[in-house]
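WARN  no MSA supplied for this record, continuing single-sequence
INFO  ligand: LARABZUK
INFO  echoing inputs
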Amino acid sequence: MNTKFSDSIRAKKQAGFIPVIPDIKCTSPKEGDLLRGRDPAEVAKLLAEAGAPALSVVTESKNFGGSLELLERIATSTKLPTLRKDFITCVDDLKITKDCGAEAILLICATQPFSSLMKLYEEALKIGLEPLVEAHTKEELILAGKIGAKLVGINNRNILELERDDGTVSATELLAKYKPDDAILISESSIQTPAQAQAAVRAGADAVLIGTAIWQAENMRECYLALSRGMGDYV
Ligand SMILES: O=C(O)c1ccccc1NCC(=O)[C@H](O)[C@H](O)COP(=O)(O)O
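INFO  complex generated
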């Protein structure tokens, strides 16, 4: 059985690194094609070998070019705990995610009312998936606390604008203090440099989730290593 998503993040942090979760995303609604001919599963392998504690795979197809097949390929080939990022709306989505071999599932506060979020949260735990509850405002972080979330994300961008807005790490700096006390906090999106990854950690994040900067780097491995050390002038 794979290590739990949250345990893997904790272990990387205890080893003295910034736990950087690479986001395997084929297309960015803002930047276009990120693959540029590369096989995303091979990239996932490369980043796993560079020391990633966990992976995120965007499965939404229309805007991000993802798929469940890709999730399954990556979850089964890397053996790293894998998060499915998509707009999850029903219990069937959870079962399918588990069947693909994922360990964690994204639940977005902005996309549904409290009652359905709560139901999905409880069902995810029953099925054996760790729910990452994603917030973009103070109110949503308070909601995450009411749900009892132990894994919380601050998306520095507004996902309802499909990543076309210019988020910055200052969203994490402003909001981190509202996260539930005992939750692991992940700062997501718009982190481009080691200094920004450091800033997220200084603000209270336990981990960062980074896609575009790694995909656009000339040397993905070196970029990954610089981000996880929080230093260097890569990117
Ligand atoms: O995060 C979401 O809510 C989400 C839901 C469905 C599809 C995609 C979604 N987000 C995309 C991302 O997670 C970003 O790619 C990720 O945070 C990395 O951002 P960046 O480093 O700016 O590419």
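The first strand starts at residue 20 and ends at 24.
INFO  checksum written, moving to next record
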